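In this section we walk through a basic example: taking a raw amino acid sequence and producing a predicted 3D structure, encoded as discrete structure tokens. The instruction is simple. Fold the sequence below.
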Amino acid sequence: MRRLTYYILVFIGAIALFSCAEDVSELQQEGNPVLQIEDQFSNVHFGDNLPFTATVSDDIPLSTLTAILYFGEEEVERTTIRTKENGTYSGTIAVPFLKDIPDGTATLEFVLLNTTLKSTIKSFEVPITRASYPYLILVTEDASYPMLPTGQPHEYAATEPFPSTDLPAYIKTPVVDSKGREIIFGWEAGAVIQDVSESIPFVSPVGGTFSVTFNTKTYQAAPFFEILLNGTKLRMIDKENYEIDADLTRGEEVTIEGLEDIAEWWIDSDYFTVIETGKYTFTPISGKYRITANLTKKYFRVEVLDGNSPAALKADGTGAVWIIGDQVGKPSYITNHVGWDPSKALCMAPVGNKIYQVTLKGGETVNTETINFKFFHQKNWGGEFSSSTLTTGSDIVFIGNGTNGRDNGNLGLISGTTLEVGATYVFTVDLSTGIDKGVLRVVKK
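The resulting token sequence is shown next.
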């Protein structure tokens, strides 16, 4: 079907080329294109730039020679050469290097067209394998190390007294023959991929001599820092952040393993009640949540999910409410200030009955002298609460209306009021009577 589509498109293009605005004449195929290609496609590896040589001729002018590579029925690469005259032409076609593709037989098809779109086709079955490299090269900022075969299929390892347990590096292959190329493996979007040189954030749990391993088929690599939530490993986003999407039940016991300094971490009381170090009770309503462990700031960021995306507030008052704005942030408004950056929005904990909660500590997670944040329907710009959809009877904060010292919907401290350093303040947004009839309460504990 893909090949038929290709020819239909070529034919349509030719009609457009040979037609005029008022008169389209029928194209007559003429000539006798002849294509000769020797089967020169042996010892082919993923990642190769595969060369080919073709001898072409016709008794009318030729147009193009196109080489198309198929994995099964899927076209994965093509290249086209302009063939103005009879003669011999050379070119290359790239063989993709991708994760998890098994060795197998591809189809390499050549299509020769003349100027009347008459064609001839030759196809070759091409066995393709993943190269067995004699070594790989681990490249750090300061040095390079050989990675040798371990005996496991496609796996290589460098075992050295590395200078640090934190070892950002990328990996590259040697060029095994004249049609091969150097393949580079680096880090992007929390995973190892090919043809990227951004360093992979290797981290060893022990110092001294340790091994860095990599599999050129599965792209499995080690060592990485490992954190477990209820026995399930968090995925690495970068060397500072690990995350997991999990279905959690109110009141269930949650265990965190793999963090030797967990006793020093800031635990968000809106989501977790401490049982003991590394063991907690989950406190919001049951649902799907994304938990991100930040190794630098030593805290767990928790966000409500809808499917695989951050949840938004629904018309019935369920979902999520987000905080964006100034002088607030977890675990510290100074070191992790939210500001007007939606990507850093704080997700309020859904505590039930369409009530959302955030607990702030004066001088720690909120400025005691001034605040200027507001509540949003999503982790982005869009729906937001205003003075017409959110009211409060608080004697601590007021809701801006655009003329009282704050933009519409932004919170401020009532004149002459400051928050107490070290005191805890619980902000709740109650939407039980409708998302356009929200009630904000602020209680000092």
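Looking at the output, two observations stand out. The chain has four domains: 2-129, 136-222, 226-310, 320-445. Confidence is low (pLDDT under 50) at residues 1-25. In the next section we compare this with other chains.
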